Amino acid sequence: MTIKMTQIPLITGTVTYCNDSKPFEGVVIDVTSTAGDRVASTITGPDGTYSVSFSSPERTFIVSAVAPGHVIPSRTVTLDDSGRATADFKLGTLNLTKGSWDIVGLDRNDVNTGPNQYLIQIRVRNDALTTANNVTANLTFTTANPYINLAQNETAIKYLGDIPPGVTVDVFYLWR
């Protein structure tokens, strides 16, 4: 009589902050198949560690670490002969800074004299250790003033593409 033991896959790891390597509690760890099907999910503990087991005949998985406001890194892991794999993450953020003034308005009481358009610049720097994929900038108005708007043919949403670690991308908006 032969008994075949089935190994239950186990993926473990630690999630830390990118800048100081402190443990990152509350990060959602998602495990998906290479076809994109969600297999399992868990949350990191106070020490930043996680352990997730599940049932699957596959040997290769994609593990992602998800926390609001942080770049979402992914790792492809292949289970070893014992059915185990490790995926550690360091989560970083996109840093936004003003490159221009954040107050706009006319410099005269006559709207037909002087400048009536303003260029707003925002600098987006990837402080994470992984590429931020498919980044978009979305400008939101914080004024109820009906005379301050984006210029004609300007859009509030701009696609910035992928931003590698340490790279800064400038976003410009034309106001009127």
Describe the structure.
With 176 residues, this protein is mainly beta. The chain folds into two domains: 10-91, Sandwich (Immunoglobulin-like), CATH 2.60.40; 94-175, no CATH class. The chain is built from no helices and 13 strands. The protein has strands at residues 10-17, 28-33, 38-43, 49-53, 60-66, 74-78, 84-86, 89-91, 94-98, 118-126, 132-138, 157-163, 168-175. The strands form four sheets. Strands 1, 4, 7 and 8 form a four-stranded mixed sheet that branches. Strand 2 (28-33) and strand 3 form a beta hairpin. It is elongated, with a radius of gyration of 23 Å. The chain starts with 9 loop residues before the first strand and ends with a strand. The model has no long low-confidence stretch (mean pLDDT 87).
| Tally of DSSP helical segments | 0
Can you tell me the residue ranges where pLDDT is under 50 for at least 5 consecutive residues? none
Q: Report the CATH architecture of the largest domain.
A: Sandwich
The average pLDDT is: 87
SSE order, one letter for each helix or strand:
EEEEEEEEEEEEE
Question: What is the total domain count?
Answer: 2
Largest sheet: 4 strands, mixed
**Care to count the β-strands?**
13
- Overall geometry: elongated
Structural class: mainly beta
Describe the structure concisely for a colleague:
This protein is elongated.
